[in-house]
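W.,

You were right to be curious about this one. When I first looked at the sequence I had no strong expectations either way, so I just let the prediction run and decided to look at it fresh. Below is the sequence, 297 residues in total, followed by the output.
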Amino acid sequence: MKKWFCSVAGLSLAVAGSLAAYAQAPAVSPVSPPNILNIETINIKPYADGPFDKVASEYPAVSQQLKDPTHLLAMEALTGAPRAIYLSGYDSFEALQKSEEWLGGDAATDAKFDALDAREALYISEVHHTLWHYRPDLSNNVAAADIPHSHYWEVIVFHMRPGHDEQFEEMTKLYRDANLKSGQNIPWSSYEGMMGVTDAYLVLIPMSSLKDEDSGLAHKKDFGAALGEEGRNKLNKLSEQNVVSVEDNLWLVNPEWSYVEKSWIDADPHYWAYEPAAKPAHKSAEAAHAPKAAPAQ
């Protein structure tokens, strides 16, 4: 994982095409989503979640000791097979190169990360990297996303038929118009697959809690009414003729695996900088994943 510790400052991500309805007030100054998004997906071996968690939680401490200038956001799968994903963002490929070269030539630093990689490899079946390009024309109200307080995410990947990009754009605009018409000005960002993935679009929904999913179900009829019969028929036809498959999963942000900026910690210290002495006897689902100490910047 050492090669993918990259800045996620202002990583304002949410999903086009979602029926989730929620309202979030930004706790930090909004920053435009990065032009290039890297996602590292780690498939965890069955029943190896615990050992993997222990090793993955040690990476941020090493970055803290080394005063790593870059950051990342980590999540674990709540649905589907056991997996971890790491999000990192760049303004350009040149910025990606500079991040890759941060460790170059430092044998001592390489050795620390290599040791962790070797231990973690015992619990991993596959590692996959993908690069995505931000599509502002398919996004909406990104400044309203409050990423530091988003502890859960819904991640959707649309796999399209080759040469059918225009149809995805048409589908997204239908969703966006219906969402706005139903009074749900939901913030989202859209990314188009570049490398490591083909004919795919990525959309993600950040949520402060899973209660937002309940809100989405409650507003499903409003969305359907706003879409109308003509819009619904058009959307179904576009989907049937142009979409190969859709992957839709829920993810939980894992603060122990993440290495975030100080502004994120300041915005939500109970979550990102949880003190061991304050832990309750029976930890909640979120507290169970809180770090023992705040990563130094």
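Here's what jumped out at me. The chain has nine helices and eight strands. And, maybe more interesting for your project: Confidence is low (pLDDT under 50) at residues 1-27, 275-297.

Coffee later to discuss?

I.
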